[in-house]
Amino acid sequence: MDAFSKNLSALIEDRRLTQQEFADSIGVSLTTVNGWLRRGVQPKAFSIDAIASKYGLSSDDLLSATSGFYAKAHGLTEAPAGALAPREPRRAYAPLYGRVHAGGAGAPDLLEDRIPIPYEVFEHHQHGYFLEVEGSCMNRVYPEGCFIFIDPDQPPRNGSIAVVSIDGGDYVMRRLLRGANAFILAPESFDGQWEDIVFREGDGHQVEMVGTVVWYQPQREME
What we know:
The chain is of the alpha+beta class. The chain folds into two domains: 3-73, Orthogonal Bundle (434 Repressor (Amino-terminal Domain)), CATH 1.10.260.40; 91-222, Umud Fragment, subunit A, CATH 2.10.109.10. Helices cover 24% and strands 30% of the residues. It is built from seven helices and nine strands. It has helices spanning 3-14, 19-26, 30-38, 45-55, 59-63, 69-73, 119-122, and strands at 91-101, 109-118, 129-134, 147-151, 161-166, 170-178, 182-186, 197-200, 207-217. Strands 2-1-3-4-9-5-6-7-8 form a nine-stranded mixed sheet. A hairpin with a 3-residue loop joins β5 and β6 (170-178). α2 packs across α3. The protein is globular.
């Protein structure tokens, strides 16, 4: 993990934000934040300026490996008076209820397990639960096999990634795009084989918004 990724991760944890909440706060997508945190994508200068302005930081706080936010929060450098003290990480557990299909709609596979989750995420979504992703139609955002954390109390907004029940049973996870008389469940895949699922008024389908994806955990980090 590079210096910017470590500093950004420490900032998000310190402010007790989900990655989606942080992305919304600076006007970028969750995919962009995931790229910064997990794939080593380097931010543009205007993104550094936006983060620094929003959270009262300097560019050095975000970019320095020796005197950045991570080093200060973990006592690895002599911090100025008033700097945030490191705190012990807290951990919660949420149930793993089953698998959700990131492809064609299908009945969810029921599982029984509990997955650790940062307390700072869980405390904002205390009725949430995990689903394991099966399929490739959302692999630009959530790779197959990862665990997505669903908040059933948070209605999906236009542009958010939703878990949807179709006709009372089949579940699918896709990005929700709303129109005047219809809505679309859009894939985000590297494969190019998936098409939009479109629902229009009066087409006879019963569609239930199960919840919104608010966080995810790569499976390899749980092993």
